[in-house]
Specification:
By secondary structure, the protein is an alpha/beta fold. The protein is 43% helix and 16% strand. Strands 4-3-1-2-9-10 form a six-stranded parallel beta sheet, sandwiched between helices. The chain has a four-stranded parallel beta sheet with strand order 6-5-7-8, with helices on both faces. Helix 1 crosses helix 10, helix 2 packs across helix 3 and helix 4 packs across helix 6. The radius of gyration is 18 Å and the shape is globular. The structure holds D-glutamic acid.
Length: 271
């Protein structure tokens, strides 16, 4: 690893979902500068091919490395499912690559061994079966029920949150027979913490809802510490880039970071 500790942390997702992870990292590691890339031009990632996701993730990682990032956080479950090993092969000799799935697997597998666990995510993530496979490897007696909830990420990205439409869509998915009897639910998409309170309201406290953001932020903290890559003091503002400008992205970023952020449109796919 050649990149100094005072360099920024690079984070990417297809859109606003990864901001949930970025915010948790900023809260836990306030001395770190973040560079965020939302690939809004290709949103949603959930129905793209492995090849396309690997191609997007490689290009974005190169952009983050050009910005001097000392670590890359794949703040997207779909890209973590399909492109993590691909990115590791290319970049792990230069910077640590951290996905959002393994920290959650370790967290849930460290809990009660007999429980019935639901997993909801994009078609890509659920189709890859990565959560069920990894959870069974670590904790074979878990009963795992997975369900693709394809409409949720685009719904959130369109701003349908905390309203009647999103309540109806969430209820429709969560009442699916495949999730009957679950005791905990993994939100296997980084967009879903934005609707976590609506999901919790549906279950009325009877189901524990796990989301990646704070779990991943702790994993990032541990990994940077073990590599002696923690910064000492924040010297530059966070930077936010999108491949296609959307007003909702700018609004959400301001809500998350409570600061007047400047959203930069970087047409990465035109170059
Ligand atoms: N936030 C992403 C995830 O965690 C992607 C959602 C999408 O673009 O389909 O999978």
């Amino acid at each position: 690893m050649v990149i100094p500790a005072n360099q920024p942390i690079g984070i990417f997702d297809s859109g606003i979902g990864g901001l949930t992870v970025a915010k948790a990292i900023a809260d836990q590691l306030p001395q770190e500068q973040l560079i965020y890339f939302g690939d809004t031009a290709h949103l949603p990632y959930g129905d793209k091919s492995t090849q396309a996701i690997c191609q997007y993730s490689t290009r974005i990682s190169n952009f983050l490395l050009d910005k001097g990032c000392k670590a890359i956080i794949i703040a997207c479950n779909t890209a973590s499912s399909f492109a993590y090993h691909h990115l590791q092969e290319q970049f792990a000799s230069k910077v640590p690559i951290i996905n959002v799935i393994d920290p959650v697997i370790d967290h849930v597998a460290g809990g009660p061994a007999e429980q019935c666990v639901g997993v909801i995510g994009t078609k890509g993530t659920i189709g890859s079966d990565i959560y069920a496979r990894k959870l069974r490897e670590k904790s074979p007696s878990l009963d795992i029920r997975s369900l693709a909830t394809a409409l949720l990420a685009p719904m959130i990205e369109e701003g349908f949150v905390d309203d009647e439409i999103s309540d109806t869509v969430i209820r429709k998915y969560l009442s699916d027979a495949r999730l009957t009897g679950i005791q905990s639910l993994i939100l296997a998409c980084t967009h879903y913490p934005i609707i976590k309170s609506q999901i919790e309201k549906y279950y009325q406290g009877k189901v524990t809802v796990f989301e990646a953001a704070s779990i991943v932020a702790s994993a990032v903290h541990r990994q940077l510490q073990s590599l002696d890559l923690l910064n000492e003091a924040l010297s530059e503002m966070h930077r936010f880039y999108v491949s296609d400008y959307t007003e909702f992205f700018e609004k959400t970023t301001k809500v998350f970071f409570r600061q007047s952020i400047h959203l930069e449109h970087y047409p990465i796919w035109d170059n």
